[in-house]
Protein backbone atom coordinates (compact mmCIF):
# COMPACT_ATOMS: atom_id res chain seq x y z
CA UNK A 1 0.00 0.00 0.00
CA UNK A 2 1.35 3.46 -0.89
CA UNK A 3 1.76 6.10 1.84
CA UNK A 4 -1.01 8.12 0.13
CA UNK A 5 -3.43 5.25 0.38
CA UNK A 6 -2.44 4.55 3.97
CA UNK A 7 -3.05 8.18 4.83
CA UNK A 8 -6.44 8.13 3.08
CA UNK A 9 -7.36 4.91 4.92
CA UNK A 10 -6.40 6.42 8.27
CA UNK A 11 -8.51 9.50 7.49
CA UNK A 12 -11.57 7.40 6.65
CA UNK A 13 -11.14 5.41 9.84
CA UNK A 14 -10.68 8.56 11.96
CA UNK A 15 -13.87 10.01 10.49
CA UNK A 16 -15.72 6.74 11.14
CA UNK A 17 -14.49 6.63 14.76
CA UNK A 18 -15.45 10.27 15.27
CA UNK A 19 -18.96 9.48 14.01
CA UNK A 20 -19.32 6.66 16.53
CA UNK A 21 -17.75 8.71 19.32
CA UNK A 22 -20.40 11.33 18.73
CA UNK A 23 -22.91 8.70 19.84
CA UNK A 24 -21.01 7.98 23.04
CA UNK A 25 -19.62 4.62 22.00
CA UNK A 26 -15.94 5.56 21.67
CA UNK A 27 -13.20 4.77 24.11
CA UNK A 28 -13.75 7.97 26.05
CA UNK A 29 -17.55 8.13 26.00
CA UNK A 30 -20.43 5.94 26.96
CA UNK A 31 -20.59 7.08 30.55
CA UNK A 32 -24.12 5.87 31.09
CA UNK A 33 -24.23 2.73 29.02
CA UNK A 34 -20.67 1.62 29.69
CA UNK A 35 -20.18 2.10 33.39
CA UNK A 36 -18.26 -0.76 34.98
CA UNK A 37 -20.56 -2.75 37.22
CA UNK A 38 -19.45 -3.65 40.68
CA UNK A 39 -22.17 -6.18 40.89
CA UNK A 40 -20.22 -9.42 40.77
CA UNK A 41 -20.65 -12.31 38.42
CA UNK A 42 -23.98 -14.13 38.29
CA UNK A 43 -23.96 -17.80 39.14
CA UNK A 44 -26.21 -20.07 37.07
CA UNK A 45 -25.13 -23.54 38.20
CA UNK A 46 -28.48 -24.13 39.92
CA UNK A 47 -30.32 -23.65 36.64
CA UNK A 48 -32.22 -20.54 37.67
CA UNK A 49 -31.79 -17.39 35.58
CA UNK A 50 -34.34 -15.16 37.30
CA UNK A 51 -36.10 -15.52 40.61
CA UNK A 52 -38.89 -13.07 41.43
CA UNK A 53 -40.46 -13.59 44.84
CA UNK A 54 -43.44 -11.86 46.41
CA UNK A 55 -42.97 -8.51 44.66
CA UNK A 56 -45.39 -5.71 45.41
CA UNK A 57 -45.33 -2.31 43.71
CA UNK A 58 -47.79 0.41 44.68
CA UNK A 59 -48.50 3.67 42.92
CA UNK A 60 -50.40 5.97 45.26
CA UNK A 61 -51.92 3.00 47.02
CA UNK A 62 -52.80 1.16 43.79
CA UNK A 63 -51.05 -2.21 43.53
CA UNK A 64 -49.59 -2.57 40.03
CA UNK A 65 -47.83 -5.73 41.24
CA UNK A 66 -49.33 -7.72 44.06
CA UNK A 67 -47.15 -10.46 45.61
CA UNK A 68 -45.84 -11.48 42.19
CA UNK A 69 -43.65 -14.60 42.13
CA UNK A 70 -42.04 -16.15 39.07
CA UNK A 71 -39.00 -18.25 38.19
CA UNK A 72 -37.29 -18.36 34.80
CA UNK A 73 -34.81 -21.14 34.17
CA UNK A 74 -31.49 -20.85 32.38
CA UNK A 75 -32.08 -21.07 28.62
CA UNK A 76 -35.86 -20.96 29.00
CA UNK A 77 -38.13 -19.02 26.63
CA UNK A 78 -41.13 -17.86 28.65
CA UNK A 79 -44.06 -15.94 27.24
CA UNK A 80 -45.98 -13.68 29.60
CA UNK A 81 -49.49 -12.75 28.62
CA UNK A 82 -52.25 -10.85 30.37
CA UNK A 83 -54.82 -8.14 29.73
CA UNK A 84 -53.97 -4.45 29.63
CA UNK A 85 -52.88 -3.16 33.00
CA UNK A 86 -51.99 -6.63 34.33
CA UNK A 87 -48.56 -5.42 35.44
CA UNK A 88 -46.32 -6.82 32.68
CA UNK A 89 -44.41 -3.59 32.04
CA UNK A 90 -44.11 -2.87 35.75
CA UNK A 91 -42.62 -6.35 36.23
CA UNK A 92 -39.98 -5.59 33.54
CA UNK A 93 -39.33 -2.22 35.21
CA UNK A 94 -38.64 -3.93 38.53
CA UNK A 95 -36.29 -6.53 37.01
CA UNK A 96 -34.30 -3.84 35.20
CA UNK A 97 -34.05 -1.51 38.19
CA UNK A 98 -36.31 1.22 36.79
CA UNK A 99 -38.93 0.78 39.50
CA UNK A 100 -38.20 -0.15 43.11
CA UNK A 101 -40.74 -2.50 44.70
CA UNK A 102 -42.24 -1.98 48.15
CA UNK A 103 -41.30 -5.51 49.05
CA UNK A 104 -40.09 -8.82 47.69
CA UNK A 105 -36.94 -10.31 46.16
CA UNK A 106 -35.51 -10.35 42.66
CA UNK A 107 -32.41 -12.46 42.06
CA UNK A 108 -30.39 -12.92 38.88
CA UNK A 109 -28.80 -16.36 38.95
CA UNK A 110 -28.47 -17.71 42.47
CA UNK A 111 -26.37 -14.90 43.87
CA UNK A 112 -27.17 -11.43 42.48
CA UNK A 113 -29.74 -9.34 44.32
CA UNK A 114 -31.06 -7.09 41.55
CA UNK A 115 -32.85 -4.81 43.99
CA UNK A 116 -29.49 -3.56 45.22
CA UNK A 117 -28.25 -2.57 41.76
CA UNK A 118 -28.72 0.46 39.57
CA UNK A 119 -30.27 0.25 36.10
CA UNK A 120 -26.93 0.58 34.28
CA UNK A 121 -25.28 -2.06 36.42
CA UNK A 122 -28.13 -4.46 35.73
CA UNK A 123 -27.65 -3.99 31.98
CA UNK A 124 -23.92 -4.61 32.36
CA UNK A 125 -24.25 -7.90 34.22
CA UNK A 126 -26.21 -9.50 31.41
CA UNK A 127 -29.85 -8.43 31.39
CA UNK A 128 -30.94 -6.87 28.10
CA UNK A 129 -34.28 -5.17 27.63
CA UNK A 130 -36.06 -4.45 24.39
CA UNK A 131 -38.81 -1.86 24.61
CA UNK A 132 -41.79 -1.95 22.32
CA UNK A 133 -40.62 0.91 20.09
CA UNK A 134 -37.38 0.36 18.20
CA UNK A 135 -34.57 2.62 19.37
CA UNK A 136 -31.71 2.37 16.92
CA UNK A 137 -29.37 5.15 15.83
CA UNK A 138 -31.21 6.16 12.67
CA UNK A 139 -28.33 8.11 11.09
CA UNK A 140 -25.80 5.32 11.47
CA UNK A 141 -25.52 2.23 9.29
CA UNK A 142 -26.72 -1.17 10.47
CA UNK A 143 -23.08 -2.23 10.88
CA UNK A 144 -22.22 0.90 12.88
CA UNK A 145 -25.19 0.33 15.19
CA UNK A 146 -23.86 -3.13 15.99
CA UNK A 147 -20.33 -1.80 16.36
CA UNK A 148 -21.57 0.81 18.80
CA UNK A 149 -23.36 -1.83 20.85
CA UNK A 150 -20.11 -3.79 21.01
CA UNK A 151 -18.28 -0.69 22.21
CA UNK A 152 -20.79 -0.23 24.98
CA UNK A 153 -19.74 -3.63 26.33
CA UNK A 154 -17.08 -3.05 28.94
CA UNK A 155 -15.40 -6.37 28.14
CA UNK A 156 -14.77 -5.27 24.55
CA UNK A 157 -13.80 -1.68 25.21
CA UNK A 158 -10.10 -2.07 25.93
CA UNK A 159 -9.42 -3.61 22.55
CA UNK A 160 -11.42 -1.08 20.60
CA UNK A 161 -9.13 1.90 20.65
CA UNK A 162 -8.14 1.43 17.03
CA UNK A 163 -9.99 -1.19 15.10
CA UNK A 164 -12.25 -4.19 15.44
CA UNK A 165 -10.45 -7.48 15.90
CA UNK A 166 -11.15 -10.36 13.53
CA UNK A 167 -13.14 -12.03 16.29
CA UNK A 168 -15.31 -8.96 16.76
CA UNK A 169 -15.91 -8.66 13.02
CA UNK A 170 -16.92 -12.32 12.98
CA UNK A 171 -19.32 -11.67 15.84
CA UNK A 172 -20.93 -8.75 13.99
CA UNK A 173 -21.18 -10.99 10.89
CA UNK A 174 -22.85 -13.75 12.92
CA UNK A 175 -25.38 -11.34 14.39
CA UNK A 176 -26.08 -9.78 10.98
CA UNK A 177 -26.89 -13.25 9.64
CA UNK A 178 -29.03 -14.10 12.67
CA UNK A 179 -31.14 -10.93 12.35
CA UNK A 180 -31.44 -11.27 8.55
CA UNK A 181 -29.65 -8.01 7.86
CA UNK A 182 -26.42 -9.19 6.23
CA UNK A 183 -27.41 -7.68 2.88
CA UNK A 184 -28.29 -4.39 4.59
CA UNK A 185 -25.12 -3.99 6.68
CA UNK A 186 -24.17 -0.67 5.09
CA UNK A 187 -27.71 0.68 4.93
CA UNK A 188 -28.67 3.65 7.05
CA UNK A 189 -30.75 2.28 9.92
CA UNK A 190 -33.39 4.99 9.47
CA UNK A 191 -34.24 3.48 6.07
CA UNK A 192 -35.04 0.02 7.44
CA UNK A 193 -38.60 -1.27 7.79
CA UNK A 194 -40.17 -1.32 11.24
CA UNK A 195 -39.52 -5.06 11.56
CA UNK A 196 -35.90 -4.70 10.48
CA UNK A 197 -35.34 -1.95 13.05
CA UNK A 198 -36.72 -4.26 15.72
CA UNK A 199 -34.30 -6.99 14.63
CA UNK A 200 -31.41 -4.54 14.58
CA UNK A 201 -32.15 -3.53 18.13
CA UNK A 202 -32.33 -7.17 19.19
CA UNK A 203 -28.99 -7.64 17.40
CA UNK A 204 -27.54 -4.73 19.37
CA UNK A 205 -28.63 -6.38 22.60
CA UNK A 206 -27.14 -9.68 21.45
CA UNK A 207 -23.75 -8.02 20.78
CA UNK A 208 -23.42 -7.81 24.55
CA UNK A 209 -24.27 -11.48 24.93
CA UNK A 210 -26.95 -11.07 27.62
CA UNK A 211 -27.90 -14.08 29.72
CA UNK A 212 -31.45 -12.81 30.07
CA UNK A 213 -33.41 -10.92 27.43
CA UNK A 214 -36.66 -9.12 28.26
CA UNK A 215 -38.74 -8.38 25.19
CA UNK A 216 -41.83 -6.19 25.36
CA UNK A 217 -44.32 -6.89 22.55
CA UNK A 218 -41.55 -7.48 20.02
CA UNK A 219 -43.83 -8.19 17.04
CA UNK A 220 -46.28 -5.33 17.49
CA UNK A 221 -46.62 -3.63 14.10
CA UNK A 222 -44.76 -6.36 12.21
CA UNK A 223 -46.03 -8.03 9.04
CA UNK A 224 -46.95 -11.74 9.24
CA UNK A 225 -43.72 -12.68 7.52
CA UNK A 226 -41.63 -10.55 9.89
CA UNK A 227 -43.49 -12.07 12.85
CA UNK A 228 -42.66 -15.58 11.64
CA UNK A 229 -39.01 -14.67 11.19
CA UNK A 230 -38.95 -13.18 14.67
CA UNK A 231 -40.33 -16.41 16.10
CA UNK A 232 -37.56 -18.32 14.28
CA UNK A 233 -34.97 -15.89 15.66
CA UNK A 234 -36.18 -16.27 19.25
CA UNK A 235 -36.34 -20.05 18.95
CA UNK A 236 -32.73 -20.03 17.74
CA UNK A 237 -31.71 -17.99 20.81
CA UNK A 238 -33.47 -20.30 23.27
CA UNK A 239 -31.01 -22.44 25.19
CA UNK A 240 -28.14 -19.97 24.93
CA UNK A 241 -30.13 -17.12 26.48
CA UNK A 242 -33.15 -16.98 28.75
CA UNK A 243 -35.94 -15.01 27.10
CA UNK A 244 -38.96 -13.40 28.69
CA UNK A 245 -41.39 -12.31 26.00
CA UNK A 246 -44.38 -10.14 26.89
CA UNK A 247 -46.88 -10.47 24.08
CA UNK A 248 -50.52 -10.00 23.14
CA UNK A 249 -50.28 -11.78 19.78
CA UNK A 250 -51.46 -15.33 20.57
CA UNK A 251 -50.43 -16.71 17.18
CA UNK A 252 -46.89 -15.58 17.90
CA UNK A 253 -47.03 -17.05 21.42
CA UNK A 254 -48.24 -20.32 19.89
CA UNK A 255 -45.31 -20.32 17.44
CA UNK A 256 -42.85 -19.67 20.27
CA UNK A 257 -44.23 -22.21 22.71
CA UNK A 258 -44.67 -24.98 20.11
CA UNK A 259 -47.34 -26.66 22.20
CA UNK A 260 -44.86 -27.69 24.87
CA UNK A 261 -43.60 -24.60 26.70
CA UNK A 262 -45.16 -22.98 29.72
CA UNK A 263 -46.76 -19.53 29.51
CA UNK A 264 -47.56 -17.27 32.44
CA UNK A 265 -50.77 -15.26 32.66
CA UNK A 266 -50.63 -12.08 34.73
CA UNK A 267 -53.70 -10.37 36.07
CA UNK A 268 -53.97 -7.52 38.58
CA UNK A 269 -50.29 -7.75 39.39
CA UNK A 270 -50.17 -11.48 40.20
CA UNK A 271 -49.80 -14.77 38.38
CA UNK A 272 -53.31 -15.91 37.50
CA UNK A 273 -52.33 -19.11 35.72
CA UNK A 274 -49.32 -20.94 34.37
CA UNK A 275 -49.21 -23.85 31.93
CA UNK A 276 -49.32 -24.73 28.25
CA UNK A 277 -51.01 -22.14 26.05
CA UNK A 278 -53.87 -24.57 25.35
CA UNK A 279 -54.32 -25.13 29.09
CA UNK A 280 -54.38 -21.48 30.07
CA UNK A 281 -56.68 -20.63 27.15
CA UNK A 282 -59.13 -23.24 28.48
CA UNK A 283 -58.78 -21.97 32.05
CA UNK A 284 -62.06 -20.41 33.17
CA UNK A 285 -60.42 -17.68 35.24
CA UNK A 286 -58.27 -16.68 32.27
CA UNK A 287 -61.21 -16.65 29.87
CA UNK A 288 -63.10 -14.48 32.34
CA UNK A 289 -60.40 -11.82 32.70
CA UNK A 290 -59.93 -11.59 28.94
CA UNK A 291 -63.62 -11.59 28.05
CA UNK A 292 -64.53 -9.42 31.00
CA UNK A 293 -62.86 -6.43 29.29
N1 LIG B 1 -46.12 5.24 37.21
C1 LIG B 1 -47.36 4.81 37.43
N2 LIG B 1 -48.21 5.51 38.20
C2 LIG B 1 -49.46 5.09 38.45
N3 LIG B 1 -49.97 3.95 37.98
C3 LIG B 1 -49.18 3.20 37.18
C4 LIG B 1 -47.85 3.59 36.86
N4 LIG B 1 -47.30 2.62 36.06
C5 LIG B 1 -48.26 1.70 35.89
N5 LIG B 1 -49.37 2.04 36.55
C6 LIG B 1 -50.62 1.26 36.61
O1 LIG B 1 -50.27 -0.06 37.00
C7 LIG B 1 -51.04 -1.01 36.31
C8 LIG B 1 -50.13 -1.98 35.59
O2 LIG B 1 -49.54 -1.31 34.48
P1 LIG B 1 -48.55 -2.01 33.47
O3 LIG B 1 -48.16 -0.97 32.46
O4 LIG B 1 -47.47 -2.67 34.21
O5 LIG B 1 -49.49 -3.09 32.80
P2 LIG B 1 -49.25 -3.95 31.48
O6 LIG B 1 -49.66 -5.35 31.80
O7 LIG B 1 -47.89 -3.74 30.96
O8 LIG B 1 -50.32 -3.31 30.49
P3 LIG B 1 -50.28 -3.22 28.88
O9 LIG B 1 -50.56 -4.59 28.35
O10 LIG B 1 -51.43 -2.26 28.59
O11 LIG B 1 -48.95 -2.65 28.48
C9 LIG B 1 -51.96 -0.22 35.38
O12 LIG B 1 -53.22 -0.10 35.99
C10 LIG B 1 -51.28 1.11 35.26
O13 LIG B 1 -52.22 2.14 35.01
From TrEMBL:
Supply the Pfam families for this chain: ABC_tran (PF00005), BCA_ABC_TP_C (PF12399)
Native species: Aquincola agrisoli
Ranges for domain ABC transporter come to 50-293
**What SUPFAM superfamilies has UniProt attached to this entry?**
P-loop containing nucleoside triphosphate hydrolases
Entry-linked CDD domains: ABC_Mj1267_LivG_branched
Q: What GO cellular component term, any one, is given? A: plasma membrane
Q: Which GO terms describe its molecular function?
A: ATP binding; ATP hydrolysis activity
Keywords on record: ATP-binding, Nucleotide-binding, Transport
Residue ranges annotated as coiled coil are none
User: InterPro entries per the record?
Assistant: ABC_AA/LPS_Transport, ABC_transporter-like_ATP-bd, ABC_transptr_urea_ATP-bd_UrtD, BCA_ABC_TP_C, P-loop_NTPase
Protein name listed in UniProt: Urea ABC transporter ATP-binding protein UrtD
